[in-house]
């Protein structure tokens, strides 16, 4: 089931992000900053966060999207993560398809995703590509020497 992210999902999300071993502590801190903005400021329009849960309300994955400031119809996919032992079971596809539907309903014409060229993100990049996203740009040595910024996108 995919639903709006709730306060009760917060602790489970910290555990999920940590257990994936895909994110650094600094990255997890940034992800949680967006979650906290979403949870505490009901009037904010920058982030929309959804949870994928099982029938017992256990968090299986989440996705954070939002309109890109100063654009018309461009949205960012800020975060997507699936519990390590649930990866490869279609939860990520369900989340991204759900987000794409929401974005289209809100007049979206382009989704942008930024990621790293590091080897540890290889499966993530394959996931984006299998979901119909293409590399729109690459900035060499963006995050660090040898760690490029890859910008993926999908037009509707």
Query: Radius of gyration over alpha carbons?
Result: 15 Å
CATH superfamily: Gcn5-related N-acetyltransferase (GNAT)
Helix content: 25-40%
- What's the number of domains? 1
Multimerization state: single chain
**CATH architectural group:** 3-Layer(aba) Sandwich
Query: How many beta-strand segments?
Result: 7
For the largest sheet, list the strands in their spatial order: 1-2-3-4-5-7-6
Q: Might you state the CATH topology name? A: Aminopeptidase
**The CATH C-level class name:** Alpha Beta
Q: In percent, how much strand structure appears in the residues?
A: 25-35%
Question: Unreliable segments (pLDDT under 50, ≥5 consecutive)?
Answer: none
Estimated structural class: alpha+beta
Principal-axes geometry comes out as globular
* Count of helical stretches: 4
| Nearest-integer average pLDDT | 97
Spell the H/E element sequence.
Answer: EHHEEEHEHEE
Would you spell out the secondary-structure blueprint of this structure?
Layout: E1 2-4, H1 10-20, H2 25-40, E2 48-53, E3 59-67, E4 74-82, H3 91-105, E5 110-116, H4 122-130, E6 134-144, E7 147-155
Parallel strand pairs: 4-5
Antiparallel strand pairs: 1-2, 2-3, 3-4, 5-7, 6-7
Helix pairs in contact: 1-2
């Amino acid at each position: 089931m995919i639903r709006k992210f709730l306060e009760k999902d917060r602790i489970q999300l910290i555990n999920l992000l940590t257990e994936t071993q895909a994110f650094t502590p600094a990255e997890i801190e940034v992800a949680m900053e967006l979650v906290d903005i979403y949870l505490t400021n009901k009037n904010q329009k920058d982030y929309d966060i959804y949870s994928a849960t099982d029938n017992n309300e256990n968090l299986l994955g989440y996705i954070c999207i939002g309109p890109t400031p100063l654009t018309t119809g461009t949205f960012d996919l800020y975060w997507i993560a699936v519990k390590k032992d649930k990866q490869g079971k279609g939860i990520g596809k369900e989340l991204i398809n759900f987000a794409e539907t929401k974005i289209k309903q809100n007049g979206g014409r382009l989704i942008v995703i930024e990621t790293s060229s590091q080897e540890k993100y290889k499966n993530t990049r394959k996931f984006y590509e299998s979901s119909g996203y293409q590399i729109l740009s690459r900035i060499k040595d963006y995050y660090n020497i040898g760690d490029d910024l890859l910008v993926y996108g999908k037009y509707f």
